[in-house]
């Protein structure tokens, strides 16, 4: 039976530190656990630390991308940190680009990337469903161009 990968909360960021090579079942459990934790905590960021991962197959690579997509749909950006050169080479050879996944070399750089991304989101004007800017009081401002 596969062990569950712990999902830790640090402020508004969830940290997943993968310490062993994952089998398919463990990756599926992680996907479910992480989605539930994003909803439960309202986290705006997810950092997946794969420093200890030495080998990935196509399933694990696709699941990293899927996890990032699920998190994005739940309003949390995902950053994968600590990718070894051999893992990067394998993903490229498998034709997996991890589209939509931000990567960083270290945990510190990954957390900074999330901070920068959140600051950009927080500094821009809110927009309504039609793309019109929405003022702080919730009313549309037709003079504002959509972002």
Entry keywords:
4 helices; disordered C terminus; five-stranded mixed beta sheet; 8 strands; three-stranded antiparallel beta sheet; 147 residues; alpha/beta
Can you give me a brief rundown of this structure?
This protein is an alpha/beta fold and 147 residues long.
Overview of this structure, please?
With about 150 residues, this protein is an alpha/beta fold. Helix content is about 40%, strand content about 20%. The protein contains four helices and eight strands; from the N terminus they run E-E-H-E-H-E-H-E-H-E-E-E. It has a five-stranded mixed sheet, sandwiched between helices.
Would you spell out the secondary-structure blueprint of this structure?
Blueprint: E1 7-10, E2 13-17, H1 24-41, E3 45-49, H2 58-73, E4 77-81, H3 85-93, E5 102-104, H4 107-123, E6 126-127, E7 133-134, E8 140-141
Parallel strand pairs: 2-3, 3-4, 4-5
Antiparallel strand pairs: 1-2, 6-7, 7-8
Helix pairs in contact: 1-2
Give, in spatial order, the strands making up the sheet with the most strands: 1-2-3-4-5
Q: Strand pairing plus helix content: what structural class?
A: alpha/beta
Q: Detail the poorly predicted runs.
A: 127-147
Could you give a short account of the major beta sheet? Answer: 5 strands, mixed
Question: Number of helical runs?
Answer: 4
Strand residues, percent: 15-25%
N-to-C terminal Cα separation, in Å?
48 Å
Question: How many DSSP E strands?
Answer: 8
Q: What is the succession of H and E elements? A: EEHEHEHEHEEE
General form: globular
| Helix-residue proportion | 40-55%
Give the radius of gyration.
Answer: 17 Å
Mean pLDDT metric: 83
């Amino acid at each position: 039976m596969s062990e569950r990968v712990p999902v830790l909360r640090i402020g508004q960021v969830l940290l997943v530190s993968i310490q062993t090579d994952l089998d398919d079942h463990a990756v599926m459990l992680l996907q479910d656990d992480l989605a539930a934790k994003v909803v439960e905590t309202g986290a705006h960021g997810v950092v997946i630390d794969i420093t200890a991962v030495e080998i990935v197959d196509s399933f694990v690579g696709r699941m990293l991308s899927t996890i990032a997509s699920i998190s994005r749909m739940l309003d949390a950006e995902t950053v994968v940190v600590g990718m070894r050169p051999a893992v990067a080479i394998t993903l490229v050879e498998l034709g997996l680009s991890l589209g939509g996944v931000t990567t960083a070399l270290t945990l510190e750089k990954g957390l900074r990337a999330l901070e920068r991304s959140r600051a950009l989101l927080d500094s821009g004007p809110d927009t309504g469903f039609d793309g019109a800017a929405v003022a702080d009081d919730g009313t549309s401002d037709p003079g504002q161009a959509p972002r």
